[in-house]
Specification:
ADH_Zn_typ-1; oxidoreductase; alpha/beta; metal-binding; globular; 332 residues; 15 strands
Length: 332
């Protein structure tokens, strides 16, 4: 099968067009999927820079967002059958989706929404699972929760879904940050009630909207740079949830507010084979239903064609620029 991989970590030009054997017949809960489209996430570029090949593999194949067709199923599979259209993010420590065929655990997979094409569907899984877990599993928000949700980095992949979920499924008022005209327009399209500029005084901007504090903060980027602001603006007994990798983060400043600080990492369940791995299947099934009903829209912003090292290298460079909006997809 055709794939894109690398032997040693480095810049985007380490990616190479390669040919690998087709995966073997699936076992256990695994599905064998013919991949039709993928999308790019920051994890792709972080792994490419930091990590080499997996044990026993000559090449590392990246890719943690895919849409495709089930070709075969393992003997323990319950949710899918050959011919099903699926979408998923997969597991961190298995070969990724930048290949024509991939093996993935069904408990991390959802049925693809019929109203989307391959590229649109591939834009959703990782960011949807991350946003859902952050909002409902980590912050324990419910449909009855009231308050103010601040989404820092609202135009990115996770922010784009988080805004939609909070707006449609909770009673939270959503304030998103964006610093350019195009990102401001994007987060408003996703459903934000208000937009502020994270390059300016965010506390002053929030108070100018008539809010003294926020009850929930989704820290999606530059958490170390914004920590002092978070300590100031978070309400007593509020919740700060983080997904990025701050170089420095000191929890002590939140003590006087009895704040809850949580980290969200959507690969935790698969990485540690937790008993609730199928929670991610359930999340993707709910996302699929919300897309079908028109309550959630795909977050594709840019599309490229053809599985190749050159195309993926360009998408990696775009992601590393820090100026991405929504998701970039690659349709095979």
């Amino acid at each position: 099968m055709k794939a894109v991989g690398y032997k040693a970590p480095g810049a985007p030009d380490v990616l190479q067009d390669i040919t690998l054997p087709d995966p073997p017949a699936p076992k256990g809960h695994d599905l064998l999927v013919r991949v039709r489209a993928v999308s790019i996430n920051p994890v792709d570029t972080k792994i490419r820079v930091r990590a080499g090949t997996l044990d026993g593999e000559a090449w590392r194949v990246l890719g943690w967002d895919a849409a495709g067709i089930v070709e075969a199923t393992g003997p323990e599979v319950r949710f899918f059958k050959p011919g099903d259209k699926v979408f998923y993010a997969g597991a961190l420590m298995r070969q990724g989706s930048n290949a024509e065929m991939q093996t993935v655990d069904e408990r991390l997979v959802g049925h693809m929404p019929d109203r989307l094409d391959w590229g649109q569907a591939a834009s959703l899984p990782l960011t949807s699972v991350t946003a859902w877990e952050m909002l409902f599993d980590r912050m324990a928000v419910t449909n009855l929760t009231k308050g103010i949700l601040l989404v820092v980095g609202g135009a990115g992949g996770v922010g784009s879904i988080l805004i939609q979920l909070a707006r449609k499924l909770t009673g939270l008022t959503v304030i998103a940050t964006a610093s350019r005209d195009e990102t401001r327009d994007w987060v408003l399209r996703m459903g934000a009630h208000h937009v502020i500029d994270h390059r300016q005084d965010m506390a002053a901007q929030i108070r100018a909207l008539g809010f003294e504090q926020v009850t929930h903060t989704a820290a999606l980027t530059a958490t170390d740079r914004h920590q002092a602001f978070y300590e100031e603006i978070l309400a007593p007994q509020g919740h700060l949830s983080v997904i990025d990798d701050p170089a420095h983060f000191d929890i002590v400043g939140f003590k006087k507010k009895s704040a809850t600080i949580s980290w969200e990492f959507m690969f935790t369940r698969s990485l540690f084979a937790t008993p609730d791995q199928a929670r991610q299947h359930d999340i993707l099934e709910q996302i699929s239903s919300l897309v079908q009903s028109g309550d959630v829209v795909a977050t594709e912003y840019h599309r490229a064609q053809g599985l190749s090292a050159a195309a993926l290298g360009r998408l990696h460079s775009e992601s590393e620029s820090g100026k991405s909006i929504g998701k970039s997809v690659l349709v095979f």
